[in-house]
Amino acid sequence: MFPDAVEVQTLVRSKGLFSFYEDGHQECCRIRKVRPLRRALKGLRAWITGQRKDQSPGTRAHIPIVQVDPSFEGLDGGAGSLIKWNPVANVEGKDIWNFLRTMNVPVNALHSQGYVSIGCEPCTRPVLPGQHEREGRWWEDAKAKECGLHKGNIRDGDSTKVGVNGNTNGVATSVNGTPDIFDTQHIINLSRPGIGNLLKLENRQEPWLVVLYAPWCQFCQGMEASYVELAEKLSGSGVKVAKFRADGDQKPFAQQELQLGSFPTILFFPKHASRPIKYPSEKRDVDSLLGFISALR
């Protein structure tokens, strides 16, 4: 699998080769790793990983052997359509290496040079004796130890950055220790008065797509990459893409005024209509959402 060449060229030309040092690796990982994997998984019903609990105690200590994938969609689309197997979740690293040596399995030559956990070249370094293997990944940031492929491992209350370049102060915001999501310059962060004004408009100048979300919701987290990609594709198209955090004190309002039933709820506010139209499907991939918007525009 390869990343989209135009996306890579645009990123490098606009931000240079090393922008990931500035944004917590989010955009680079999303373009070069997460989106290609998503394309591959869309044709499958299950996938197998090599994750272990002792590999990254901060994010992988609770991974099960088998689970419904919280971040990606499978062949049938929608939440719950992809199974994720982690068969060595409970196996310790030393036992993996004992097996490899016993069975004379060929391994990457970098392992003998101290690269215990191998990732992208600029984001990986050898570890020192006594250091944990994950210390060699994203070494300039002690907290950022998941790139997005296993983002579902980040539990509620984890302080790991999820994204930057938001619409407020350029940094991902956090409420009660839960990192915010959908943070990109292409997605407008609506306040309660903001979405209230959007509801009152009967003759909007342009249509809006708004996701009602809670940052702790695994299904919201699972659609984040798709929604961000959608916002990027719609940039300059005349459709505004936004988010409204609808949990906590905002939940009663969202239930009464915004048709909130569960998280996430996606609403389309047409250009010349007073009430929003609720997205009826659990398929939250880019193509499905684009089809919904096209049909209503």
UniProtKB/TrEMBL annotation:
InterPro entries reported for this sequence: PAPS_reduct_dom, Rossmann-like_a/b/a_fold, Thioredoxin-indep_APS_Rdtase, Thioredoxin-like_sf, Thioredoxin_domain
CDD domains per UniProt: PDI_a_APS_reductase
Listed SUPFAM superfamilies: Adenine nucleotide alpha hydrolases-like, Thioredoxin-like
A GO term for molecular function: iron-sulfur cluster binding
Keyword Iron-sulfur in annotation: yes
Pfam family, one: PAPS_reduct
EC class (word): oxidoreductase
Keyword rRNA processing included in the entry's annotation: no
TM region(s), chain numbering: none
Protein keywords: Iron, Iron-sulfur, Metal-binding, Oxidoreductase
GO annotation, biological process: sulfate assimilation
Name listed for the protein in its UniProt record: APS reductase
Lineage, top ranks: Eukaryota, Viridiplantae, Streptophyta, Embryophyta, Tracheophyta
Gene name, Swiss-Prot/TrEMBL: APR
